[in-house]
């Protein structure tokens, strides 16, 4: 379903753009021309919100931006397919942040990995609401077997902006880990993404 690019543009803010915000507007001008300033303001000066709007819109200027975002994600994906995810933790974080950018609902994704811990495939498996997503381990295992994966890395986003894992997040991670162990597949990590912030269960000592 096509969505409008954003709410109607708000009047120009009385607060001037800082240097970073001005660079963003300048980078948006090849896509949106003279409308770049107004669209940036209409999306709350949030590049993440604008990225999400671009992915939902059918307008040509927004589709061009969405294509650019897709190419950036494919560039990161290419790095993950040629090297172990352990060698590229920054690329993993950047890939996930770009995927979830501006998304107003929770979703759960899986990175399927081979025996070298390189990326085989990436799938969004479950979508939810602002604050929760139902995840079915049986369906995850089916896709693991489909891809003949040796390991997986899972992630979901918190649109509320907090990366702190909930008790349900911790319980799900344990259930997935135990279920995967039964078929000799390793759960390497569980990431939570909240805007520009990420949390790794392994780095936190939760997995």
Automatic annotation (TrEMBL):
Gene3D superfamilies: Cytidine Deaminase, domain 2. CDD domains: MPN_DUF2466. Pfam families: RadC. Residues 85-207 form the MPN domain. It comes from the Bacteria. The keyword Hydrolase applies. Keywords: Hydrolase, Metal-binding, Metalloprotease, Protease, Zinc. Belongs to the UPF0758 family. This is DNA repair protein RadC.
């Amino acid at each position: 379903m096509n969505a409008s690019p954003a709410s109607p543009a708000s009047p120009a803010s009385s607060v001037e753009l800082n240097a970073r915000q001005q660079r963003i507007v300048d980078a948006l001008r090849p896509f949106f021309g003279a409308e770049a300033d107004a669209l940036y303001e209409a999306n709350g000066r949030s590049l993440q919100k604008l990225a999400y709007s671009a992915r939902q819109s059918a307008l040509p200027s927004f589709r061009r931006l969405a294509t650019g975002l897709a190419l950036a994600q494919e560039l990161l994906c290419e790095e993950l397919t040629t090297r172990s995810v352990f060698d590229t933790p920054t690329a993993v974080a950047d890939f996930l942040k770009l995927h979830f950018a501006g998304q107003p609902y929770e979703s759960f994704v899986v990175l399927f990995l081979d025996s070298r811990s390189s990326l085989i495939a990436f799938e969004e498996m479950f979508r939810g609401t602002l604050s929760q997503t139902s995840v079915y381990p049986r369906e995850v295992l089916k896709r693991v077997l489909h891809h003949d994966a040796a390991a997986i890395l899972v992630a979901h986003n918190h649109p509320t902006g907090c990366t702190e894992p909930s008790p349900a997040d911790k319980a799900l991670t344990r259930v997935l880990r135990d279920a995967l162990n039964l078929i000799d597949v390793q759960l390497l990590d569980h990431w939570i993404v909240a805007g520009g912030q990420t949390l790794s269960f392994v780095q936190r000592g939760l997995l």
